Amino acid sequence: MFERQEFLETVETASVVVTIAAEETAGVQLEEVSVQEAWERVRRRLRAELGEDVFSSWFGRLELAGIVEGVAYLTVPTRFLKSWLEAHYAERLRVNCIAELPAPNGVLLSVRQVSRDASIPARPDAMPRSRPTPAAAVLVETGKAAAAAPQACEADLVDACGTALDKRMSFLSFVVGKSNQLAFAAAERIAAAPAGQSPYNPLYLHAGVGLGKTHLLQAIAQEARRQGKRVAYFTADRFMYGFVAALKSQTALAFKEKLRGIDLLVVDDVQFIQGKSIQQEFGHTINALIDAGKQIVVAGDRLAGELEALDERIRSRLGGGLVVEVGELDEVLRAKILGTRMEALQTAHPNFQVSPDVVAYVARVVTTNGRDLDGAANRLLAHATLSGQLVTLETAEAAIRDLVRTREPRRVKIEDIQKLVATRYNVSRADILSERRTAAVVKPRQIAMYLSKALTPRSLPEIGRRFGGRDHTTVLHAVRKIEKAISEDRSLHEEVDLLKRMLQE
Description:
Blueprint: H1 4-50, H2 52-58, E1 63-68, E2 71-76, H3 79-88, H4 90-100, E3 106-111, E4 138-140, H5 143-148, H6 181-192, E5 203-206, H7 213-226, E6 231-235, H8 236-248, H9 252-260, E7 264-268, H10 276-291, E8 295-300, H11 312-319, E9 322-325, H12 331-348, H13 356-365, H14 370-387, H15 393-399, H16 401-405, H17 414-424, H18 429-433, H19 439-455, H20 460-466, H21 472-488, H22 490-504
Parallel strand pairs: 2-3, 5-8, 5-9, 6-7, 7-8
Antiparallel strand pairs: 1-2, 4-6
Helix pairs in contact: 1-2, 1-4, 1-10, 6-7, 8-9, 12-13, 12-14, 17-19, 19-21, 20-21, 21-22
């Protein structure tokens, strides 16, 4: 039985989705023909621009799943095709879709689910109206539930696009170091905890590209499933696609009920979730699961509070749990990761041998992320197998030269700028954020605003909010004043340059 509050919340959120579904259905009835005609015009434009051969090879299986809040949701059957279109034709596809479709906010490309039953259509808008389960999530059931649901077997550990969780991404294969030790420990604790008894809820992991957060999320999902928990694993685009598919097939309530019935929800790359209705559903799902004692694990590329495109209530909810940063790889950890990769390659290729000196060199100069370390290992293997020569320091240097050149600069945070400037000018960070207007505070505040504009991608309104809720015009005034001052004052110019170097190193 539902408690009264939970029941009221469920009725309220259900009514929102029912309303949305009803509006979507009415829209389909009134505008389906015109939307499909517009989509055909997009296809004709692409065929005319690219030629029949290119169009047939890359766009023949591209389909329009729906248009929600001005975003056109397009689907293809494979991840390879999605990656190819994004890499080679993303802008051309976007321009043509915006030109012909009622989608001024852009285009989202996803991989659609390929049904294992040939009698069941894979397209969301072609699903039978009575079908209760949308093509949406990885809903993995075990124990008694698995006996009642034969489809929840080993082969069904998949997400919406039909891709199995990578079994190589387990806790055993994760290389632990100083920068990721806390995240690893929290992930293991959550995966092993009995359902409803996790001490950290929600868990929010944030890190840059290639630092291991997806590995940890997949390890959590697989270990929790092994423990007998019901697990749903989403990437952000899969969640959005699932919600759109549920609306199109009039199964929004079934979609909600499925999500409410799990023990663990895992969502990767949450920064990509967009659309007001979709974010509302995501927020309702998080609240309902946490209130019911279910576990939430989410990963993003920055702190939850910095996800400007995400609804404020979602950011607050994610920030209210355990927040852990997966830090950059230090040289010791890079050497351990690279050593593990080399051992795996040597197992598959017994004649492939690399000296410890080469491993140490690669770990020292490839400083970006784990994916670049994988790339370096594969380049060394290719050199050894194709040339038939031993890998030396000289050949290793030539093989990985591009990985060394493409090192990305350190990501600077506004909080780091405020702390460094406050320390440099002997004031507190609270002083910089305050309303105080004394000269001793105004100057460092303006310098901090200038550095925030110069070293971060944040907008002027966002910088103003981070400096005590100030208006963007205040930030613009500070930036212009410091720009003028450093052009006239050599010592201030050198001082600001020093602060820049300290923040970027």
